[in-house]
User: Fold these one by one.
Assistant:
Number 1:
Amino acid sequence: MRDCIRAARPAAVINCAAWTAVDRAETEPAACRAANEQAVAHLAAACRETGAWLVQVSTDYVFGGDGGRRVPWREDDLPAPRGVYAASKLAGEEAARGWERHQVVRTCGLYAAGAEGPVRGRNFADTMLVLARDREEVRVVADQHCTPSHVPHVAAAILELLATGLPGTFHVTNAGATTWHGFATELFRRAGLPTRVVPITSAEYPSPVPRPAYSVLDGSRLAAAGITLPDWRVGIADYLAAGAESPRRS
Ligand SMILES: NC(=O)c1ccc[n+]([C@@H]2O[C@H](COP(=O)([O-])OP(=O)(O)OC[C@H]3O[C@@H](n4cnc5c(N)ncnc54)[C@H](OP(=O)(O)O)[C@@H]3O)[C@@H](O)[C@H]2O)c1
């Protein structure tokens, strides 16, 4: 990475690479930390050497702890990561902060249409559309509050944020909040699909690492920098519109 950055001399490096297998990180912690912590330290060093800005994409999962919370998290709230993945992402944030020209961008629940439109099956929205093809109902957790965010909206905001030249940590998600159940319901409604969305609890859909019960991020620091993102429902509309000409959906 250092050779590459020395040769390219970029104005900024936007680090989207990460170990994102949250549950598998528990059994392969070294590989997870190498990608999410140590690689960021190398990037920060290379950026310091060349003067490049470093944008480190991070996650709402750093706020894993407080199940009773119902107020969006601010950037300076105390993180409480649960599990290897979340802890490694928090350590990656710290590594990025080691170089003054950094922007740590915490986002949440990313989804986007692929090159061929929706339905490649690699994010929650794609998965729901695949399931809806041959199921009359899907069971979706209704007790995890968050803001699923459309990647093109987040990406545009990151570029705007870079242009401000403001260092620090910023929460960058679509506006508003919902649950995965609320998201799936709105997705099917907008897609015109009859599939029922049955609410279940996290306890009925257990995973090795518990997901945050409430990880809505407060976007007011971003707004103070003059940047706002559309409501999460607009994210769904844009995601579906991106697949309008997809051969797979015709
Ligand atoms: N997805 C979400 O809901 C979500 C929510 C909040 C924050 N985030 C953060 O957003 C960022 C992007 O997440 P994502 O969901 O787009 O992840 P993703 O789909 O898993 O993509 C991660 C990318 O990182 C690359 N990568 C992984 N390990 C690497 C390594 N050791 N060396 C080089 N490249 C490596 C992968 O390359 P290959 O494809 O070649 O393996 C892949 O292109 C991450 O920082 C993640 O923590 C994601």
Number 2:
Amino acid sequence: MKNWMRKLARHYQKTRDLYPEQKLLLVFDIDGTILDMRYMILRILKLFDKSHSTAFFKDLKLSDINFNENQVEELLGQLKIPGQQSKEIFDWYLEHRWSSTSILESHRPFLGVVEVIRWFQIQPNTYVGLNTGRPESIRNDTLRSLNKLGEEYKVSFTDDLLYMNPYGWDMKVSEGKVAGLRHFQKGGYRIFAFVDNEPENLRAVSEIDEYREILLLHANTIFESKRKRLPGSTMSGKVYDITELIPERALPSHVQFVWHGANDEANLRQFLASNIHWAEYDVRMDPDGDNLILRHDSFERTPMQEHEEFLLLEHILKLHKKMDKSLKLDLKEGGLLIDKIVEVLKASGFDSSQLWFNGNVEVLQEDRFRKLAKAYPRAIKQCPIDFLTPIILSVPDKAKEMLDIFRGWGINRFSVNWKTPYMRQLLDQIDKWGFEVNLYNIPDLESFLKAVLLLPRSITSDFNFPKWHYYGRGAGENLKHYEYSIRRSP
Ligand SMILES: [Mg+2]
């Protein structure tokens, strides 16, 4: 197995199966493993220039920094800064790098790592611990900064799961790591994996792990001790890729998944063969006004195409009935559409709980939402609320009044576009009010999994995930579809 994240997922599952009742712990180093220290180095050096009116680092870019936070002297040498000034800069760097402001303002995580942490934090009886070479004196700053950057991912770190180097700054770091793992073990945790960017630390841990129960993961970022010291069983990796970490079978069962826009035969066939329980259809009246058809675009926007064929809603209802799957209907029009839908659904004998209606408030208006709520009390009635984002984030009390009005119409779920600016803050606010949220417009597997990690009530997605052998095509705005390609295996 080549991918470290896939290996981590397997090893976690294996440990879970062996010890179903125990508290499992994944342990992370911080600097160079969770945090990309190049940001801190860059910020401190630029700050030197600024406060000394010099220009040593005017052209220095993130990508120029190939050294870790303890090797800044080498970096200065490479930049050919004369000895006396170099010493002055280095002393200044040492003095400022662990200041509270530096810790709070310049520490950035590697891409994907916070998602990996969140994934394990939402698993039952599973915890994430931190084991760092930083000393106790910066415990509070460490927790504050990590919790600040974890906030929008709903990740939090607690005092009891942070172990700091008892020997002080840069002293006996590997021994400190071993002591940290022992400390967590004494606390009743079974450690299933340890992630660190320093081979020396991984080696020290491998020496105390007699039964090889702790998977050693080497974050191959920028490391200090020589590569050859990496113990044999270690998996190395550079990218925290959640699409390798999270398999379909591990998706949380309390989030509802909806296959978006299954309006055509090809998409529909994919959906029916999938494990997904809900499909969304765009419902309109046909041009003659007789039948309910599936079509994303209005006829004004995209005129009827030559040889265009429509699927009828009634056909879909039969298929869903047969396969025992549920339906989400995106109601694209007001007018007679709602009466017609109520009539057709009545004939089909669907239970309220298998139905979900989505419509824009300006299209359906109060009376049609009330009509749906009356006919289908147990169904999900939903409207998108992206248009309220600026109000929700700036005048929340007013926005809450609006949402309460919609709730009064029978609407019981609010839908949020994944690509809305400030989406995470928006979601957080709606969560706090206790409303159910659907996330939609999620383009690919990585975004889908990120959405899953936020644990909304439901997620509507195209399921265009070749990695999972799902080839959903979406609703086809202007009759266009997302594309995908299937590669031949080598
Ligand atoms: Mg480190």
